[in-house]
Design goal:
This protein is of the alpha+beta class. Helix content is 44%, strand content 14%. Helix 1 packs across helix 2. The chain is globular.
Length: 73
Amino acid sequence: MASDAEVPKLLLSTHEVARALGVSERFVKQLIHAGSLPSFKVGRLRRIDAGDLRAWIERQRAAGRPVGLEEQP
């Protein structure tokens, strides 16, 4: 049986995303509210798919701009 250390984390909390990016949790919530970073609820908890976070990082990198709120089309 696999231990918890071997199971990759698929869903992240806003706190975990903030720590991973080195930003405030408030900033992560602003990204979510602006629609830049997709999220969904699991019960009452807000979660971010790890793949969506990676995609958001890649969009920021590809745009060649500092990490921040994306302009909405």
